[in-house]
Amino acid sequence: MPAPLCKEMIPFYLTTALYWIFYIPNDQPGILTMLLKILPTIALYCAIRVGIRYTNWYQKYLAFGLAASVVGDAALVWDELFVIGMLAFAVGHFFYIKALNLKG
Fold it and tell me: What is the pTM of this model?
């Protein structure tokens, strides 16, 4: 049974709390808004990289999906990048589905 990722998840929990504490409405897009939005996903990506160390394709596909989600979250901060954000999320979901197919 693998060890829990408790230690590695602390940055994810902290950045998620920061996002909700300093939430900036969508009508004020900017770099700070983007950073607050993508930091939790980046922290989760780092937790997977540090905690699991890419031992198989399942973890790799999850990491690829999270990386694509970061691009999608960053793009959705600005209305004119909506299509790019949706395409990035589609790529991310492709990798999540591939990862789940390996587990099923």
Answer: 0.82
Contact 70, 38 (CB under 8 A): yes
Q: What is the pLDDT along the chain (104 residues), one digit of tens a residue?
A: 455 557 878 888 999 998 888 877 767 788 888 999 999 999 988 888 776 666 688 888 999 999 999 999 999 999 999 999 999 999 999 999 999 887 66
